[in-house]
Hints:
The complex is a heterodimer.
Chain A: E1 4-15, E2 18-28, E3 32-37, H1 44-52, E4 59-66, E5 69-71, H2 76-79, E6 80-83, H3 95-105, H4 112-121, H5 126-129, H6 138-150, E7 156-160, H7 168-182, E8 186-190, H8 194-197, E9 202-205
Parallel strand pairs in A: 3-8, 3-9, 6-7, 7-8
Antiparallel strand pairs in A: 1-2, 1-4, 4-5
Chain B: H1 3-24, H2 26-45, H3 56-76, H4 78-85, H5 89-93, H6 98-128, H7 135-160, H8 166-194, H9 198-227
Amino acid sequence: MATVRITFSGLGKRFGSRTVLKGLSGELRARCVVAVTGPNGSGKSTLLNLLAGVMRPSSGSVSYLATDTPVPRHRWHTLSGVAGPDMAVYEELSALENLRFFARLRGLARTDGELERVLADLGLAARDARRLVATFSSGMKQRVKLAQAVVHEPAVLLLDEPSSNLDETGHDTIAALVKSLRGRAAVAIATNDPREMAWGDERIQLGN
Amino acid sequence: MSASSLATEALAVFAKELRSELRSRVAVNSIGLFGLTTLVAVAYQIGPYQIHEQDRPHLLAAMLWIILFFAALSGLQRVFVKEEDAHTAKTLRLAARPLAVWAGKLLFNVALLAALQAFLVPLYGVLMGMQVRGVVPLIALLAAGCVAMALTATIVAAIIARASGSGTLFAILAVPLMLPLLVMLIAGTRVAMTSPRWSDVLPALQGVGALAGVTLVASVYLFPVVWHD
Lengths: 208, 229
């Protein structure tokens, strides 16, 4: 897996006349967890969307560098994994079918056993893996959402409120996931949960 | 990334669409029921004997494509609207290249329209007493029409997916874009009913092919812009 660094400078985003982010600069480095915090509406999710490339900035720029070589924007999705509250997986597919689909989109030929292990690591039992997502609780759906974000072992992981809808066990599972990624990936977590903030080596405070 | 990986991704999107549709059957029910209801109403009111012999090719060709067109309108727009409604669009945007998404959705719309044609056209032929002298040219015209209509419907569906009142907007955008296509398909079908010669249907086929080509090129350039913010 390539070591990836994301740099952003002068980053701004406007929605109509409303400015959400202005002149934000910084970077995400491999083996570093950044906690993005701030009050509601301060632009935490917007920042993650800009870093993921799913949204274009109104000003400034975002760059992905794989061992200091710029990565073209159309390749960002192969290096990053994203999970957020405004995302969903397919309810008419099983958890395993969802994961198989997202793995294929990323050019991975994973066996069902390997995919079941990814789901198991996030606390979904093998019997649940073959059930339709439509029958899942919101916490179980959140686990499948996180699984699609990490199925390709991304070099960059962007998590927006990762513990939402999860119980204490689920929170521990996310903590273990972040711990396992800390050694190799660049991780950004948008959160206002003090426990999740504590996972961060660095902090970006928005809304000041 | 290579063209083969793009094809693999597009096939993955197509397979996902097919699996989802086989489980929910929303588009199939919508298109099938609309097509069947319209066909039965037309067959009941007009049938094979209410039209003068000299008017038959004109009217039967026009009614066939009008039924296919409106049945298609009722279901083809769903491919992108359902992703936005279910909040899966962002997940898909972050996992696949735009062209793979577009190609997979297009393949699904082509399959849906082909299934509609396979179900409706023979039934229409029987109920309306439609006699076709150029069967093979008509099949070619149906295939070309299927691809051209799916191409137009897919890009319009992508454009309107994030808008409120997307159903109305789809019709407003799709009707003027498909009108020239329909005119050519109706003209070609009328000719295929009266003549077995390829050369007679060729101008209509070339026109449909040209429109499909223009829509294809426009879609390849337009879709990535429409799909992303």
